[in-house]
Design brief:
Blueprint (H helix, E strand, L loop, with lengths): L2 H17 L11 H27 L7 H11 L8 H21 L8 H4 L3 H20 L6 H10 L6 H24 L20
Helix pairs in contact: 1-2, 2-3, 2-8, 3-7, 3-8, 4-6, 4-7, 4-8, 6-7
Protein name: CBS-domain-containing membrane protein
Keywords: Membrane, Transmembrane, Transmembrane helix
Organism: Methylohalomonas lacus
């Protein structure tokens, strides 16, 4: 366990107990199990609420990369990759690049690969979209791994229409709002936009 992860866990425990006025019981709580409970509850609540919104509106608020994003936002909320700046910018890049590659390869009206299986055109579009998304995230210094899944979701035909991209990004915003509220309630200083102070040891200069 890294020093930064351990620090987040201890900060999480302290914040939760402070909110519950149970500071004196802090020595009885294992930070690991508190974080397990925190991640389990908040990931379920976040995705559950977005699923309800998607059900009521019948719009594309729910998509696979939200799961990976939810885990990141509650497991390492103080990392730069979990910040709203990285998440929103990277998913926007992934969605726009994915839709552009889908259009460039003439696949907007084609059924998704889940229906007809993989073909050469979709394979080429997916390769181009993931390569460009990874390159742009690196160039703009907004790494956010779940965005790689987002660009594939779009390119492989699961969200081929432009209006679906709008709802995809609204789903991202909703999850970020929930992450901000839940992390702040737990005493974790989740950023409004960008995390300025973080462990950058594993990031490229």
């Amino acid at each position: 366990m890294s020093e930064s992860t351990d620090r987040v866990r201890r900060q999480l425990v302290a914040g939760l107990l402070q909110q519950l006025h149970l500071e004196r019981m802090s020595e009885r709580f294992n930070p690991r199990f508190v974080q397990v409970a925190f991640n389990t509850v908040n990931a379920g609540i976040s995705i559950g609420l977005i699923a309800i919104i998607a059900l009521l509106t019948q719009q594309a608020f729910m998509f696979p990369s939200l799961g990976a994003m939810a885990f990141l936002l509650f497991y390492v909320p103080l990392s730069q990759s979990a910040s709203p700046r990285n998440a929103l910018t990277a998913h926007t890049i992934g969605a726009v690049v994915g839709w552009s590659c889908l259009t460039l390869f003439g696949l907007q009206e084609a059924p998704s690969v889940l229906i007809v299986g993989m073909d050469w055109w979709h394979a080429g579009a997916a390769t181009a979209s993931l390569s460009l998304t990874a390159g742009m995230m690196t160039f703009l210094r907004v790494p956010h791994p779940p965005a790689g899944a987002t660009t594939l979701v779009v390119t492989l035909g699961l969200m081929p229409h432009l209006h679906q991209i709008v709802f995809l990004l609204l789903g991202i915003v909703l999850l970020l709002i929930q992450a901000f509220v839940m992390n702040r309630l737990a005493g974790i200083p989740y950023p409004v936009w960008s995390q300025r102070h973080y462990d950058s040891g594993n990031e490229l200069p």
